[in-house]
Amino acid sequence: MGGEEGIEEVLDVCQHLNFERLREMNKSGVRTSAEKETEKTLEKIKNMWDRGECCDITIRAETGESYQAHRLVLAAGGDYFRALLCGGLRESREDVVWLRGVPGWVIESILHFFYTGRLWLDWGRIWELTAALLQFQLEGALSLCTDFLRERMDEGSCADKVSAEESFRAVPLVLLSRLLQKDSLRVESEMEVFRAVVTWVEDQPEDRLPSLPDLLRHVRTPLLSRSELQEALRCPLLYRSPGARAAVEALKSLAKGSYRGPECGPRTPNQVLALVGGDTVDDDFMKRVPSRTVWSAQRFHSGPGLIRTIEWKCVTNIPEPARFRHCVCLLNNKLYLLGGRKYYGSLDVLKSALRFDVLKKKWEELPDMLRQRDYFSAVCLGGRIYVLGGSWDYSQCLNEVESYSPEENSWRLDHPLETAVCGHAAAVLEGQIYISGGCDSHHHCLPTMCGYDPVGVASPGPP
């Protein structure tokens, strides 16, 4: 059926079935298509979003901005949001979902893309937006970014890197201060940040020297190596600014190992996911074997939903013996490896401790812990490493707590836990140690959480 003959037959059927409205529409000659109807529907959904109609979820940015949207549109927009909102996670039952670490303008750009298929792109935002699109696995939007870069990157635009020093000297103070505070600032070493501050001030010393103390507060000096600390202390500019005296004293205390100031973490791009030791299955899948290998995650490959395939690289090997059921923690850019087991016998529990300098890639033996332990937990607080509980054979749990001071290079016994526990978790929140779960000596699982004060006693209750 087609053409005029087809239309006549449709009109006859409409008249026979008393579908007068449909008959009039066919007589009027109105024509449409699936593509046009789809465009109309999408335009109506976009208009509803603009007016805030029928929105059933709010996306909140790290900086506090809120954006209304439709769950269905978000879930259809990408695998990440579909897994977040439809995969049984906590967010699937909440009306407000926080996207931590994502600025408001990025969320607004992603939502605009979902509803219109378009992105706002310019050189000022392309890199940060591209990183976010990679995180959220939005391949369609990411292709727009790569097209933008491919079309606009040439010898002229790439010359920005060559002339970076000249353009950097012209950066306004407010922008420089904001950049130095960012976790996402990409530097090989924090010393690059210190040198950048010095370079910027020295370009116009009379006008910029008063700003030096405030800028130095954004340099994460506890991350500097010993040689970098010495280089910073030799900088003449520090001694020309009376306000920089506090920074000089902090550098001196760090160089002497007597620093008691606030701790700080590495900038986000320099954070590394590492696997240290453990036990693995042999090549014949016949038995488990303790491992000495330290692996680091080199690259994350996208998979369906929130799944990632990780590309690993061998960094180094643990000095003998291999170990598992140990604890690992990071303090002042040094990796600490504590206790654990060297094999599966009752006498194979270790109390030895090692430290790995991640910059020099060298291991150092430390004094033994006061007690052998495995299945324990370790946290860093106030410049010390605390090891809590654990077991020293298959039947005895420990309530003992001891801590290590890098400055004194020694262990001390601290207040014990109220309950002997092993296989538990521990974390630090707002200067307080919290312990949760685990098992007691009778192999009963514990549903409790308590706070632990190194100079006081454990107190029950969550934070």
Automatic annotation (TrEMBL):
Which InterPro entries does UniProt cross-reference here? BACK, BTB/POZ_dom, Kelch-typ_b-propeller, Kelch_1, SKP1/BTB/POZ_sf
Which Pfam families is this protein grouped with? BACK, BTB_KLHL33, Kelch_KLHDC2_KLHL20_DRC7
Record bears the keyword RNA-binding: no
Q: Which UniProt keywords apply?
A: Kelch repeat, Repeat
Q: Which residues form the BTB domain?
A: 55-123
Name of the protein in question: BTB domain-containing protein
**Native source organism of the sequence:** Oryzias javanicus (Javanese ricefish)
